[in-house]
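Per reviewer request, we include the raw input and output of the structure prediction for the construct analysed in the revised manuscript.
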Amino acid sequence: MWPASPAALIAIQHELSTASPPPWRRGSGQPEIGGCIVCFPRGQAGPGSGGDRAWAAAAVLRGGRLIAEATVAGEARAPYIPGLLALREGPMLDAAVSALASPPDVLLVDATGRDHPRRAGLAVQLGAVLGLATVGVTHRPLLAAGAWPEDRDGASAPLLLGSEPVGAWLRTHRATRPLAVHPGWRTNIDTAVEIVLAAVSGHRTPEPLRRARTHARTARARDEAAHG
């Protein structure tokens, strides 16, 4: 399910870039929105390497209430290589989301989507593997560019690769740096922005991702204290 070589991953990315899955549609009730993230040992710098210790967590919220969470520990399979993040983080994120007692309706991923050399970043691939609608949320674009939106809650502005819209800057709260929001599997730009805004509470980062990051860091601290 997760390729072990750059060449194999690139081939899958080309396939995913032309896939046309049915679009995700929000139901009448509050959606269950998940978030997933991987963290690595504190103080680690650079691209890392295969075999690095890693902790991945996923959390699901509905209307601001935590309804499921899961954390897994393991090892990264590769260093970080731009455009090939799935080699390093894909299996760990898959394991964390698969460990949830119940899957979310839509999943926020700490990765890009169409803002990618082959238009198929990890947010797209993880959704395809899990069969879940996904949205990528990052602090900055990978390749795309665009002016920041105006300084008000919920303001957005396009992120472009050449003339192609591949995402959006989204200012979740005024007077804070905007986030880069990426459509992933079964989502477009407008839907991605809508989902992120629905998941935002009192913080800049959407709450499912913030909870997942807290769980991953807690697991890391516990393991580092126990094993050094």
